[in-house]
Specification:
CATH topology of the largest domain in chain A: Arc Repressor Mutant, subunit A
Order of helices and strands of chain A: HHHHEEHH
Largest sheet of chain A: 2 strands, antiparallel
Radius of gyration of chain A: 20 Å
Strand order of the largest sheet of chain A: 1-2
Distance between the termini of chain A: 36 Å
Number of strands of chain A: 2
Low-confidence stretches of chain A: none
Oligomer: homodimer
Number of helices of chain A: 6
Helix content of chain A: 55-70%
Number of domains of chain A: 2
DNA sequence: ACTGTATTTTACCAATCAGTTAATTAACCC
DNA sequence: GGGTTAATTAACTGATTGGTAAAATACAGT
């Protein structure tokens, strides 16, 4: 079952280790060992996390001698950002004004039928 | 193992059914049956999805007679938005300028040692 | 009290997940 | 070629996930 792209991205981000890896890559390309160093975790575990991030298209990998450097590929985050934009108004409005807004939407919806 | 809040939120959003439920709630409070209607899924499955959303604090529930209406609680989305803000510059820069930026960061990092 | 409607709980299942250890591959250096 | 370092693959484990069917709970209307 091929999950949609948005679900795959959210899934990849739903792990603190993977988010820390992404954060680490904001300062530039890193090797797997570099990335693994801060974590109390074996290398295969890191390899797996990297695979999840790679499948989610959040990182890109290359080869340099015996190293497989990773770099950030932020485009899927843009999709998340766009998805979440649709909800921004709901937390930006104060609670009372949100209720007001929802009521208006519901009224409008009925008048649209 | 209590997952951190951000992971819980991402996890909750990593499912198209749950995102559709949230989208449905943007037009106002809904009963469980209302929410279940568009999906080819049994009620208990929806109940479970709602429980995930509730634990992630993305919805709130009340009681009205035999109904348990749900409404959107968007605050955790704000946290996601804030997290993702830290990455905005990486997709806003053009690819070439991003590479440039990362190289500068790496150079700077070395000169800082 | 009886019936129907709304919803949850329980018990189960198959698939996926996050980690491990041990073995393997790949490339470097001498 | 032999040894070292970097990283992955394979095989396993226990926990979690997303779904189901069937039973239980909660309330409303008559």
């Amino acid at each position: 079952m091929p999950a949609d792209q948005l679900s795959t991205t959210f899934q990849a981000l739903a792990d603190p280790t993977r988010r820390a890896i992404l954060a680490s890559l904001t300062t530039g390309e890193k090797t797997v060992s570099d990335l693994a160093e801060p974590f109390d975790m074996t290398m295969p575990a890191i390899t797996k996390h990297l695979k999840v991030l790679e499948k989610a298209n959040l990182i890109e990998r290359s080869r340099e001698a015996q190293y497989r450097p990773c770099r950030l590929h932020p485009e899927p985050l843009k999709d998340i950002d766009e998805w979440i934009s649709g909800y921004r108004k709901f937390w930006e409005a104060s609670f009372d004004r949100l209720e007001e807004y929802l009521k208006q939407l519901q009224t409008k919806e009925k008048s649209d039928e």
